[in-house]
Design brief:
The structure holds two protein chains of two kinds. Helices cover 65% and strands 6% of the residues of chain A. By secondary structure, chain A is an alpha/beta fold. The chains are: A alpha/beta, B mainly beta. At the A-B interface, helix 14, helix 15, helix 17, helix 21 and helix 22 of A face helix 1 and strand 1 of B.
């Protein structure tokens, strides 16, 4: 052995159960990061076997080791430069032949490889028997069969890893016979040795094969590491040209062919198929699921169930989990410095804000758990690639990918999704350009939180045409998202990697409860670990923007005077009741807190016994106070009780006014005012600006903030009447502009964090926050200013804009579809 | 054209989703003031205000006894009905909470 530390790399094709093997080996001891410069996730974990600590790196799933996609390059670079002690090549045993193509490429890199035949159970169910010993002899490397989801073979694999790691191989691994190219390869090997010292750094034969294949990344490597690269590359080009002329075939095609034939030659003798005739179950299911008409219907059914289970039912579950989070907030609130009558200590305000921000995200956990479980189910079952296949024809026209379907449904293709789980589910999209495009457009879909504002505005300004207005706002987001995605793909994302749509259709198999739940639990846990740090950073920044500079000393004096007046009128009210001494000075705040605590506790109880227990508890804590909270028939106590209620209400009023004024006088408030010259074209005044900026924390609060802005009227008026009256210049055109701006509005705090996690860069997060703002302003200005100039009514402008968006969407679909992919 | 057809399918299936309009977890609970009145307080789990949300007091057959909206403090105070009753917080479909009178203390 010699080492007590092993670095193990897991490599293999997508959908071969590689992640399951990774999870089985490492358990919860995992860490996720991104490979530098790309959005490919780097999963590492470790386990202990005997005295040896094994670090496991889960390389991204790839079909080949060329340099077409970031996944392939990441995998190859890791094997070349990090020199793992051993590579475990996990594969789906039932597709042995196709997977060996990849194995040969690993073997050419001259590293110790273990072949892990996973999903043996599936292969057996399909009537396949694989002679693993013959396979091991044929390949000259250890072969370990496993069925990890059934819990079989893990120890064998670990033992083989320990045995193979860092060892000189007992036998020479099999080589692909490149036939006519063999002589070219050896000549090229000699040339490389003569012209450079690359042979000391990299496996020589591998280098020669790659150069013959015309691999761009390897040519770059030569340019980077060799002084005399020009001569070497000229020689390579000459060899390639000679071969092409001599064989009348492209060198890379020849290489691929030889590899396939070698795979076939090794696999065929090792596999025996039982005499099961007729179609396999997979083929039977596929005739239905990939059918021209039944296929999309089935897909809609699957997507609807997924949406229903995770979003609708998930929200139901939050009703039960929320009290836990609320309880945590109460705990924090209890240890923080207590608030005064109107002054809340900054530290208290800050920590409560922090807990609220974290809680808002943790509240998604039930939704995520169900969602991740559903996705794991679909992935394990093998349906996912089929769904992507059906949708890719439409989506590829807009720079998206077949696998963008799921994120878009979750984000709210119609009304009522949530961008956070949607962005989180973009992980599986294999092509970097489409993945980023999907991540960037998801926040424009109709998330649940935008709905209250739409309903509010439609009820006031489009009351006569509610149905049409709702249809407009529900479908317009789709018509915005597709052209915008196209636009992004053609501009900012044009240099990103696009991969051809290559997806294999793995055989179906029934996922196991263990596999699905394990995967869901793990992803939820990773989510929790990741968000906590980022949410804290962002919450601090927004807190400062909302809190400072705050209310000036003059206005503070004004509020203090009002406080004093309120308190002294309270004392007048209770004069002569015998309770004056209990309420003096500091005791007054103690009384208010006692009252609030009592009320909060009583609100949570559901049966008379618990209610009585709370009464006893509070009476024991302070009998005098308790007699005021529950005055019974005592005339004096009743009088104080009434006065206290008034006092508490007036305090709430003061606190609310101060909160509104603090926002107006915050950096965010100033920004709202500074934006007026721009936003006036969209018909927004500074109050609307501030409300919209404040909505970044969570879109629901836009409704609350707009409510607070227009509340000058009587308390009993509804928000609708207040808004209709409070802004006399407000027309349906204003409302339409506001709705469209909201539709395109930057992602909320939680989504921004998800964007950061999935794109792996702050830069993209900032871009995702910035560009919708600009786009929203442009669209809102187009509607408001354009509509005003043309003298359109709100409804006319709505129809005109809808037709414009529809036209743009159709036109965008016809602009050259997905270039650079056909290469 | 094929993409158009698929778009139509998407919209049609989107129709399933209309009406499911909800924000974050809604909260609603009531308190007996001990003076013959009750006070109910609404809100959303992310701390947003529920000001302006509709509330109804109904009897055991669902007949509406009183209806109003939450005030600017997201509160609603009402005289306790003599018969069996429930208070309903109605922030849109899928967002309703019903608190039975016999669970208010």
């Amino acid at each position: 052995m010699g080492t007590d530390k092993i670095i193990l790399a897991l490599a293999g094709q997508p959908n071969c159960g590689k992640s399951t093997v990774f999870n089985a080996l490492t358990g919860a001891r995992q860490h996720v990061a991104n490979y530098p410069g790309v959005t490919v996730e780097k999963m590492t974990g470790w386990y202990r076997y005997g005295d040896v600590r094994v670090t496991v790196v889960d390389l991204p799933g790839t079909y080949s080791l060329t340099s077409y996609s970031p996944e392939e390059r990441v995998t190859r670079d890791f094997i070349l430069h990090q020199a793992p002690s051993v590579v475990v090549n996990t594969m789906d045993a039932s597709s042995l032949k196709r997977c060996l193509y990849f194995t040969f490429q690993l073997l050419e890199m001259e590293i110790p490889v273990i072949l892990n035949l996973n999903m043996m159970d599936v292969a057996q169910n399909r009537g396949m028997t694989i002679d693993t010993e013959a396979l091991s002899r044929g390949l000259g490397i250890p072969v370990v069969p496993t069925a990890i989801t059934k819990g079989k073979g893990k120890t064998d694999l670990q033992a083989a890893i320990l045995e193979t790691a860092g060892q000189v191989l007992p036998s020479v691994p099999a080589r692909v016979d490149y036939r006519e190219m063999t002589s070219y390869i050896s000549s090229l090997q000699e040339r490389v040795t003569a012209l450079s010292d690359l042979g000391d750094l990299y496996p020589l034969r591998w280098l020669a094969i790659k150069l013959m294949e015309g691999d761009e990344a390897v040519r770059d490597l030569v340019r980077e590491k060799t002084k005399d690269y020009a001569r070497l590359l000229a020689a390579v080009d000459q060899f390639r040209q000679q071969f092409r002329v001599a064989m009348d075939t492209a060198p890379d095609m020849h290489v691929a062919n030889c590899r396939y034939q070698a795979a076939e030659g090794i696999a065929r003798p090792c596999i025996t198929r039982s005499k099961k005739t007729g179609k396999s179950l997979t083929d039977l299911i596929d005739t239905l699921v990939c059918h021209k008409i039944a296929g999309p219907v089935f897909m809609v059914g699957v997507l609807w169930s997924l949406y229903y289970l995770s979003i609708v039912q998930g929200y139901q579950i939050t009703n039960y989990t929320w009290p836990l989070l609320a309880g945590f907030r109460n705990l924090v609130s209890d240890v923080l410095p207590i608030p005064g009558f109107i002054d809340v200590p900054l530290i208290r305000a800050f920590f409560l804000w922090l807990v609220d921000s974290v809680n808002a995200l943790l509240n998604y956990i039930p939704i995520f758990f169900i969602l991740f479980a559903c996705i794991a189910f679909l992935e394990d079952s093998g349906y996912m690639p089929r769904m992507a296949f059906i949708m890719d024809r439409l989506f590829s026209r807009y720079g998206l990918h077949g696998q963008s379907t799921l994120p878009m449904v979750l984000g709210g293709i119609y009304v009522g999704g949530c961008a956070v789980p949607a962005v989180m589910s973009c992980k599986g999209i294999p092509d970097e350009r489409s993945r980023l495009a999907t991540i960037l457009i998801i926040p424009m879909l109709n998330c649940l939180a935008k709905v209250p504002l739409y309903v509010l505005l439609i009820n006031i300004y489009f009351a006569q045409h509610k149905g049409w207005a709702m249809f407009f706002i529900s479908t317009i987001s789709m018509l915005m998202v597709l052209p915008v995605s196209k636009l992004l793909t053609l501009t900012v994302l044009k240099d990103k990697e696009a991969a051809p749509f290559v997806m294999e259709m793995p055989p179906y198999h029934l996922p196991t409860v263990r596999g699905v739940l394990g995967c869901a639990l793990e992803r939820v846990w990773l989510f929790i670990r990741k968000i906590t740090t980022i949410v804290v950073a962002l919450a601090v920044v927004i807190f400062i923007l909302l809190q400072f500079p705050g209310i000036g000393p003059e206005r503070m004096d004004h509020y203090q005077a009002r406080r004093d007046a309120t308190v002294s009128s309270f004392y007048e009210e209770i004069a002569g009741t015998g309770y004056e001494a209990d309420m003096a000075d500091n005791s007054l705040m103690a009384m208010i807190r006692f009252w609030e605590n009592y009320r909060n506790k009583k609100m949570r109880v559901k049966n008379p016994e618990a209610a009585r227990a709370i009464d006893t508890e509070f009476e024991a804590a302070n009998a005098r106070f308790f007699s005021l909270v529950k005055p019974g028939r005592d005339r004096d106590a009743k009088q104080v009780n009434r006065a206290l209620k008034t006092l508490i209400r007036e305090r709430s009023q003061l606190l609310q006014e101060m909160r509104a004024e603090r926002i107006d006088n915050s950096f965010l408030g100033y920004a709202g005012k500074a934006l007026v010259p721009v936003s006036q074209w969209a018909g927004f005044n500074w109050r609307v600006n501030v409300a919209l900026l404040g909505a970044f924390a969570a879109k629901e609060s836009a409704v609350a903030t707009l409510g607070a802005l227009y509340e000058q009227g009587g308390a009993n008026e509804s928000l609708e009447t207040r808004m209709a009256r409070g802004e006399e210049g407000f027309t349906p055109l204003h409302a339409l502009a506001l709705m469209m701006f909201m539709a395109l509005y930057p992602p909320c705090l939680a989504t921004s964090i998800a964007v950061k996690l999935q794109s792996g860069s702050i830069k993209w997060m900032l871009f995702a926050m910035g560009y919708p703002m600009l786009l929203g302003l442009v669209v809102a200005s187009l509607i408001f200013t354009g509509g005003s100039l043309l003298g359109l009514s709100g409804l006319q402008a709505m129809a005109a804009f809808y037709l414009l968006a529809l036209g743009t969407t159709i036109a965008a679909g016809f602009i050259t579809a997905r270039q650079a992919d056909t290469a | 054209m094929k993409p158009l057809k698929i778009l139509m399918v998407l919209f049609a299936f989107g129709l399933f989703f209309t009406g499911i309009c909800q924000a974050h977890t809604p909260l609603f609970s009531c308190f007996d003031n001990g003076d013959g009145s009750i006070t109910c307080e609404g809100g959303f789990s992310d701390g947003s205000s529920a000001a302006g949300v509709a509330v109804r007091v109904v009897d055991k057959d669902g007949k509406v006894l009183m209806k109003d909206k939450l005030d600017k403090f997201s509160e609603y105070t009402v005289k306790k009905p003599a018969q069996e009753f429930s208070v309903i917080f109605d922030a849109g479909e899928g967002h309703q909470i019903k608190v039975p009178g016999k669970e208010i203390f």
